[in-house]
Design a protein that fits this description.
Strand content: under 5%
Number of helices: 2
Number of domains: 1
Distance between the termini: 11 Å
Oligomer: single chain
């Protein structure tokens, strides 16, 4: 596996973990744990920021492989 492929897999995994952690934060907030809203918001922001980063990374390294 090339470094480029590993980086793509790593970004996808990080995005899924961020979105999953955000979902967990929503569930915690609904259960009455106030910091869950903060966890959810920051995780969703991080996950949303990783999506354009992945797209940019793939576009800029397309011809490098």
């Amino acid at each position: 596996m090339s470094l480029r492929s590993f980086h793509i897999v790593f970004i996808v995994t990080a995005t899924l973990f961020c979105l999953g952690f955000g979902g967990w934060g929503v569930v915690r907030y609904q259960a009455g744990y106030a910091p869950g809203a903060w966890y959810a918001a920051m995780s969703f922001v991080a996950g949303a920021a990783l999506i354009p980063y992945l797209s940019s990374f793939i576009r800029t390294t397309r011809h490098a492989a």
